Automatic annotation (TrEMBL):
Keyword tags: Cytoplasm, Kinase, Phosphotransferase system, Sugar transport, Transferase, Transport
Cross-referenced PANTHER family: PTS PERMEASE-RELATED-RELATED, PTS SYSTEM MANNOSE-SPECIFIC EIIAB COMPONENT-RELATED
CC per GO annotation: cytoplasm; membrane
Gene Ontology annotations of biological process type: phosphoenolpyruvate-dependent sugar phosphotransferase system
Main location: cytoplasm
Domain spans labelled PTS EIIA type-4: 1-121
Protein location: Cytoplasm
Protein name as annotated: PTS EIIA type-4 domain-containing protein
InterPro entries listed in its UniProt record: Bacterial_PTS_sugar_comp (IPR051471), PTS_EIIA_man-typ (IPR004701), PTS_EIIA_man-typ_sf (IPR036662), PTS_IIA_man (IPR033887)
Length: 138
């Protein structure tokens, strides 16, 4: 099973895990690594979290912002490991999808969660035609 590490600025990773657990229930093989200010401490904590969730199928570090410190530090750690990938810009649909796809090959997992994360970004738009039709029946 693919291990998951959630990282981000401040309380972001804690909130993300809490949110998905309300929907999916308790999850295994997931660690959170919040970033406060110390990059060296973040690196050490990421390395430890990766070690804890790695069972041989690979690990994906989900970071809040592509290009942010948690993403950059995760990427530097992943560059030294063949079975660790990093995704920046995590959202709830992406993470939820990943929690249910953890038996996939690591590359297939990455493709699936990126697809699902992008596909679930929507804008609310009022359908004026439906509103006008419903108002005619009043």
């Amino acid at each position: 099973m693919i291990g998951i590490v959630l990282t981000g600025h401040g309380a972001f990773p804690n909130g993300m895990l809490e949110s998905v657990q309300l929907i999916a229930g308790e999850v295994k093989q997931v660690r959170i690594v919040p970033f406060k200010e110390d990059q060296d401490k973040l690196k050490d904590e990421l390395e430890q979290a990766i070690k804890e969730v790695d069972t041989g199928s690979g690990v994906v570090c989900f970071a809040d912002l592509a290009g942010g410190t948690p993403f950059n530090v995760s990427s530097r750690v992943a560059a030294t490991k063949s079975n660790v990938k990093v995704i920046g810009g995590v959202n709830s649909p992406m993470l939820l999808s990943g929690l249910f796809q953890r038996e996939l090959h690591l590359d297939d997992f990455i493709n699936r969660v990126l697809h699902d994360g992008k596909e679930n970004i929507k804008e609310f738009a009022v359908n004026k035609k439906e509103i006008e039709e419903s108002e005619e029946g009043i």
